[in-house]
Amino acid sequence: MNGPLLEVTSLAKSFGGRKVLDGVDFSVAAGELVAFLGANGSGKSTTLRCVMGITEPDAGTIKLGGQDLGLLQGRSLQQARGRAAMIFQKIHLVPRRTALENVCTGALSRMSTGRSLSPLFFPDPVLEEAMDCLDRVGLADRAHDRVSRLSGGQQQRVAVARALCQRADVVLADEPVSALDPHAAEQVMQLLAGLAHEHGLAVAAVLHQPDLALRHADRAIGLMDGRMVFDSPVTGLGTAELDHLYAPDRRLAA
Amino acid sequence: MSAPTLKRLPTRPALRGRKRWLSWTVVAAVVVFLHVLAIQGTDFQPQLLVDGWKGMAQFLADAFPPDLSWEKTIKPGLDATLVTLWIGLLGTTFSIPTALLLAVLGARTTSPAGWVYQLARAVLSFFRAVPDIVFALIFVTAVGLGPFPGVLALICHNTGVMGKLWAEAMEEIDSGPQEALRAAGANRVQQVANATLPMVVPQFVGLLLYRFDVNVRSSLVLGLVGAGGIGLLINQSIKTFRFDAMLTHIIIVLVLIIVVDQFSAFVRKRLAV
């Protein structure tokens, strides 16, 4: 694969006249975990939501695996987007279904509508692949437990397995560990870092805690009022940059 | 312990209090006015009930003691009750496919397009607005008297009510899992089948049992107008002045209603866990 898997240039978005994103440029290469940092309302989540097509950007180009999403429509747009999987803060699994059944739903775009009406009809290859994905997140032994019986950290790992079952090579995580306790957060971050470093995926994660980014990410992008203030390897980041980045939050708290 | 020294900040908003009083007075006046109109419109006169108590007492006295002869009253009563139960059961279960389809099309979160949503809602409103008795009378003209038109009538009416209740249940649940599947490239049918519907199963079953309960009671009323079942027997015993038999039938109905109610409460409790 040549070039970055995800390439975003001059992304802009306004909500009711307020500029939320203003000329955001970045790229994420295979094998790289990039953290998005910033105060509340800095535009971190909106950036990811624009890439996923959940929010429609006003301007800018988004290239996934070299394909410009702006030039695609309908079925081919959906296929191109399928290369990216999303992990949510609120996890968004179906609690009444088992972990395995939830992981299988990552593969829905490859299944016929008829066979996807009930987990009873899911094809065997999908089930096997899903089981393999669960194994990769260390939860093969909980495959047949209802998701509602798993802890928050385990649920988020099931969500990661669902993203794997989608066969995505780009993973976008929107505050994946904000709702988790420190130990589970650490585990999920290690898992995401592993996806990048060992499996060669491109991972972009919005994080609230800079220390997690410093420990797990390769690169950090700082956003402030919708503008990028830095894009540098985490080793080059000092407390001065971070202090500046979170100044808006402190103003609110004061 | 001495009382703490307070700064005595105002605890009541100065202007809002008076405004609130005014709005409450207006609401109360409107409610009273509506009730005056309603009492006039329904000839609601408690005096009539007091004056005519003797007629009612005579009616009840004729009904006691209930007729407990097995061959003449209890056995036909039980047989007819079973028919009533069957009408209620089929009226509920056979309306599941239509109610489900219209609910999915008529819920804002799952409907494919605005006009489909509006159309589905309109169809549901129609089935809900036409009383089951009217449906029964229409079907009688096609298939004749008996339990069958009763079942058809309940299917129609229940489609309207259950479809609306189910659509609202789907609109109320968290739409996050559905959005997650859409982001993963699942089509709309796949999103509904794998996120929305499995999320609302407990609510759906609860509403289904509630409708079963209501439909059994409705089939009783349908029996009064000729759809068979225990309602028909109650009607016949009143027309032939066999009030003691009527009381027996009503007692059987009471037992049926209690059993159905207990059953649905039991299932709902198990589901909630």
CATH topology label of the domain at 70-173 and 200-272 in chain B: MetI-like fold
Which stretches of chain B of 5+ consecutive residues score pLDDT under 50? none
- Give the structural class of chain B: mainly alpha
Strand segment count of chain B:
0
Shape of chain B: extended
Percent helix among the residues of chain B? over 70%
Largest sheet of chain A: 6 strands, mixed
Count the helices of chain A. How many? 9
What's a quick, concise take on this entry?
The complex is a heterodimer of chains A (254) and B (273). Chain A is α/β, with parallel strands linked by helices.
Task: Describe the protein.
The complex is a heterodimer of chains A (254) and B (273). In chain A, strand 7 (170-174), helix 6 and strand 8 (202-206) form a beta-alpha-beta unit. Chain A has 9 helices and 10 strands. Chain A has helices at 44-52, 74-81, 99-104, 124-136, 152-165, 182-197, 210-216, 239-245, 247-253, and strands at residues 6-15, 18-28, 32-38, 59-64, 67-68, 84-87, 170-174, 202-206, 219-224, 227-233. The model of chain A has no long low-confidence stretch (mean pLDDT 89). Chain A is α/β, with parallel strands linked by helices and 254 residues long. The radius of gyration of chain A is 18 Å and the shape is globular. A 6-stranded mixed beta sheet of chain A has the order 6-7-8-3-9-10, sandwiched between helices. Chain A has a 4-stranded antiparallel beta sheet with strand order 2-1-4-5, with helices on one face. Chain B is mainly α and 273 residues long. Chain B contains 12 helices and no strands. In chain B, helix 5 crosses helix 6, helix 10 (188-227) runs parallel beside helix 11 and helix 10 (188-227) packs antiparallel against helix 12 (243-272). Chain B starts with 15 loop residues before the first helix and ends with a helix. The mean pLDDT of chain B is 88. Chains A and B meet through helix 2 and helix 5 of A and helix 9 and helix 10 of B.
